[in-house]
Amino acid sequence: MAQLVVTGGARLRGTVGVLGAKNAVLKHLVATLLAPGIHRIDNTPDIVDVRLMAQVISHIGASCRFEGTSVEVEVPDELLPEAPIDLVRRMRASILVLGALLARCGEARVALPGGDDFGSRPIDMHLEGLESMGAEFELVHGVLRAIAPGGLHGAEVMLEFPSVGATENLLLASVMARGTTVIGNAAREPEIQDLAEFLVTMGAVIRGAGTSTIEIDGVGGLDPGRHRAVPDRLEAGTYLVGAAITGGEVTVIDCVPGHLRMELRKLGEAGCSYEVGKDWVTLSGPERPRPVDFATLPYPGFHTDMHPQMVSLLSLAEGTSVITENIYAARFRYIGELNRLGADVQIEGQHVIIRGVTALSGCPIDACDIRAGAALVLAGLAADGVTTVNDAEHIDRGYADFPGKLAALGAHIERFD
Ligand code: UD1
Question: Could you say which of 160, 192, 220 is where a domain stops?
């Protein structure tokens, strides 16, 4: 069990860089399976989930070589179309190999995914979309067996909800399908546009990625691709909230400020001032935050993965904030831990009611997922005394050297393994 021990009180100051988005690089790794040869992805963060996905595709036959912030993936002509149960259960994004393997091999065996515990996270939209492209599924002993007897064909798929994963699975499945696929009500996240850009470097024909209608003309085969991953807006946003909660001033570089528009707007309403350039944001925190209401929504709405960090900030606001969580019904396990620090946060159905307190007071608390872990560390930075965040390995799944980067900004933080 890893522990992060934080002594509160230091204001974060300085400059921090972010690397490529976890939620983009995981998909690039899967996309490499579509074409034999050597692919290269630059701006890759060295985080646990990226290493896990590298293990998933290595089991399938690829070889991954990490060097600095790049990864080279060599994909052979023959693949083993199965994802191992122990890895899939640790990371929900592994379900994306379904679309890629159906496209490349016409079959796939993938365990039902696990990942963060945010309540029930079904994959019905993935399966319905793939079925309309000619795939057939059978669940045997917890393993989904997929085949595409006549090969995948283009289809018009209207998603019930703009699911990120379902949009990506369909994108991966359709780039080599016969004919044209149209994904309606597609997710518009920047990471989807980034996946499409990588696929286009491989020879795919895709129109409209980043909008709610994506059209894909299937091609006979793809070539290896090379791509620089889009910056991680969640890593960037987390350091900005760090500046906000400590009343400090932080410049995040190598990011895309436009991908954080809604989050910056809400930080502004909370009393932060900020300035943006082409690839940087400088944010100064207020002496005490103002309360803010918002709802999490698909992009370009407020990102659900920034909700816990924002709750930490608003727990110290001068007044009451209400947050509505629309993406995950049960993303609230961290709130009990935040309240142990003295926050006054209540859950009412899908709403979080945050009555701002004047101070938090450090104690031992447990991280339960990536963003909750980060949010609790941020709360610890603002709390009086020492906050020990247990189970901090959750944070390693999504942040490269989180304690090191915070310490470089002036935080008093130590890691114990
Ligand atoms: C991705 C991100 C995750 C982020 C989420 C929303 C990765 C690796 N993860 O997750 O960090 O929080 O987008 O921005 O990129 N749903 C269904 N049926 C389906 C698919 C989804 O009911 O077939 C539900 C989910 O349970 C969830 C909601 O739709 O409640 C959103 O899920 P989705 O957009 O698919 O998120 P992920 O791709 O899993």
Answer: 220
